[in-house]
Amino acid sequence: MARQLRFDLGPCLFFGDNLDILPAYIADESVDLVYLDPPFNSKRSYNAIFKHVDGTPAAAQIKAFDDTWTWTIESERTFRRTVEQGGDVSRVLRAFREILGASDMLAYLTMMAPRLVELLRRVLKADGSLFLHCDPTASHYLKLLLDGVFGPTNFVNEVIWHYRKWSTGKALFQRNHDVILFYARSSSKSRIFNQLYMDRAPSTLKRFGKARIVSGYDTKGKRVPSQMASDESEGVRMDDVWDIGRVPPIKQLYPTEKPIALLERIIEATSNPGSVVLDPFCGCGTAIDAAQSLGRRWIGIDITRVAIEVIQDRLVRDHPGLDYSVRGIPTTMDEVDFLADRDKYAFQQWVCDRLGIDADIRKGADHGIDGELVRYTVAGKPWRAVVSVKGGGVNVTQIRDLRGTVEREKADTGIFITRKPPTKPMVDEAVAAGLGDDDIPKIQILTAADLLAGKAPAVPLPQMVAQRPLEAVAQPEKGSAVPTHKRQTA
Fold first, then answer.
1. Alpha carbons 455 and 268: distance in angstroms, whole number
2. Which CATH number fits domain 356-490: 3.40.1350, 1.25.40, 3.30.110, 3.30.70?
3. What are the Cα distances from residue 324, in Å, to 7, 267, 318, 392?
4. Containing H/E element for 124?
5. Shortest CA distance to 386 belongs to which of 400, 398, 361, 403?
6. Across the strands, what pairs with 159?
7. Could you tell me if residue 24 is left (phi over 0), alpha (psi between -120 and 50 degrees) or otherwise beta?
């Protein structure tokens, strides 16, 4: 059964590792267009690239990608897991290892392989497209990897993005281009492609102006001179070499920022208004900005707080008043605090995801209930707990209110999840509520730090989850295991 994903809450920005986010949140065949621009030049200093506004390094991003490009024990584990799945991707990776050995490049390709499989085989629609942005140091390897994932017949174009920059080096031609690999999810003839056009050459304009050109052959097969038709030409169909200027360093929001004209061209050509665009390495949000401007729905994912901060500031500047959600899978309390401070509903959603329940995200009066946990006793009797999540300040009144909610809802337990440590009066009030018939406390208090440490609320056994359909986030099929959210750094 495919997971269901709805966009009732509008566009969404995710904070976390895309290999964690994709299986936890993004539904099967729900995306029309994927654009990804993962950092790819392993010779650069990423301590210099990923920095906060105050100049301090962004540790999460640096660690993720420093580890990615060094062959480690974790690289070996990821390689083995991917190879054991079999298929063309497995064969390609094994061939890479024969050629490259346990090198930094193999570590990079090993990191990319499971992400491409997750992106292409599952979340991309049958008539969807993918654009992978890379530089010539890795493009030939990535093309073979994509052939393994898609099949070589679904390769569409190798787009060359040409630009000018300051000259470097004297013993080679200047490296003034990036490669963008364009693949289709399948050979479906319904694939979205909106033809774009470019200007005619000056010599053609001089001779024919804007008239449509009619060319042909005589009865002997000899080419006859081209003639002008009475109607105008649509133009020259866009080719695969794009001259678009880089973002000047002095104007960059992010050191690896790409020009918005480049992303607008990709999005215009291979999606329609209302289509879903996914950028799993969204950086400073150029793809998100372009998608919003062109009337597309979007999903952005990035592992670093720096990127999320930059994107949110950019959306405020370029799209004031835009309603979108922020979600994530934090792994430290610093990340929990960041998520809660940026969007309290994102914190609420994360808590409910950790508990394996649906979040009741109503931006208004929720009567103190942010989720509901249901279990079944051995006798088959349903056991219910109401969940209250607080990402801000806490006090004893909130525990008293939860006790009242438990009574009103005829629930077995109330679970209070707080970002900040509870006060002593809060703990005393919870103890005073006593135990239920099942010897489980009537009021349980857990902190975000408890959840990060793997602590769970007390529930009766056996733990059989009763699921309800989610409004905005994909959930597993009834009876299946609830996804866990563990950072996977390749």
1. 47
2. 3.40.1350
3. 10, 20, 14, 21
4. strand 124-134
5. 403
6. 180
7. alpha
Q: What is the pTM of this model?
A: 0.73
Contacts of residue 374, Cβ cutoff 8 Å, sequence gap at least 6: 357, 382, 383, 384, 385, 465, 466
> What residue type is 95 in one-letter code?
A
Nearest Cα residue to 267 out of 39, 32, 13: 32
Question: What Cα–Cα distance (Å) separates residue 408 from each residue in 358, 402, 405?
Answer: 21, 10, 5
DSSP codes, 33-80 = EEEE-----TTS-HHHHSB-TTS-B-HHHHHHHHHHTS--HHHHHHHH
Alpha-helix residue ranges (DSSP H) falling in 202-355: 202-208, 260-270, 286-293, 305-318, 333-342, 344-355
pLDDT digits (tens, 9 = 90+) for 288-304: 999 999 999 999 998 87
d(CA 26, CA 4): 8
Domain at 12-195+240-328, CATH homologous superfamily: Vaccinia Virus protein VP39 (3.40.50.150)
Pairing of strands 297-302, 31-36: unpaired
> pLDDT by residue (tens digit) across 361-398?
554 455 678 888 888 766 667 889 999 999 989 999 99
Task: In whole angstroms, give the CA distance from residue 246 to residue 253.
Answer: 13
Please say whether the beta carbons of 70 and 102 come within 8 A.
Answer: no
Measured CA distances, 107 to 42, 79, 138 (Å): 10, 8, 12
Encoded tokens for 405: 């909610």
Nearest residue to 42 (alpha-carbon basis) of 62, 24, 26, 23: 62
Copy the structure tokens of residue 263: 């992303």
